[in-house]
Amino acid sequence: MSSCFKASAVVFIVNFILCSWSMRLIEWESLIFNLADPEGSSLNTKCTNLSYNFCTYGYFIRSRGPRTSLGFSDEAAFTITARNHYQSINWYSLDQLEFGGCCEYHKRLYDVEGRDKGGLTHFQYFSRMMDFYSSGKELNYIGVRSDGYGGNVISSIGFGKGCLTYLPVHRNGKIRFPPTRPFQLTPRNHGMFNSSYQLLHTVDFDWFKRYVVCFERPWICSHFGPKIPIVDYVLS
């Protein structure tokens, strides 16, 4: 194992331990996406029925602000706003009764993440959901599964503020933590990284939009950036 790979493993492990402890003390927010992966979790397999690349999961918050009172008018406005825009960012409901639609799933997510944890109004929460600008958004969440051959398949990814949270796969009740092994950005997206070092030095929100989000929703890059030559929509 090269010294670079060893160093990246140490950085990943130390960061994971420090972040797990400090999440209780500092603000952490992330716009999280589930990637279409037919061999992933139920969230990933459901996403494959709705999108070829990704499903926006939601805006998640790990800080507690003052609870916001959600009156009828706010709830009605949130439902109308969500219904008008959820398809444009692949923010589909994963509930069985409204699968691929809107908006009970979205309201429950707002209740927990926006109102209870973040103290946000419905407008503030939805503004964060629709904010695809890269400024102020760092890679801060990675969820992975095993590929069965010792590597990692990234099944969910998030960008926001706060330290990187790495969610390793669990097998037979034991946490596997192989950050020096290759990372693949799900079978459908084909991004391959030889180590966590390469992953962390390559994938930012601009990269993710360029090669995943805007491949399916080009309006996002047209409006929020980065500007993309059409040839770049085809991954090498």
Describe the structure.
This protein is α+β, with helices and mostly antiparallel strands and 236 residues long. It has one domain. 39% of the residues lie in helices and 20% in strands. It has helices at 3-22, 42-48, 72-85, 104-117, 122-129, 186-189, 196-200, 205-216, 218-224, and strands spanning 29-35, 54-61, 138-146, 152-161, 165-167, 170-171, 174-175, 183-185, 191-193. The strands form two sheets. Strands 1, 2, 3, 4, 5, 8 and 9 form a seven-stranded mixed beta sheet that branches. A two-stranded antiparallel sheet has the order 6-7. α8 packs across α9 (218-224). The longest helix is centred in the N-terminal third of the chain and has 20 residues, at 3-22. The two termini are 27 Å apart.
Short synopsis of the structure:
This protein has 236 residues and is α+β, with helices and mostly antiparallel strands. The chain has one domain (1-236).
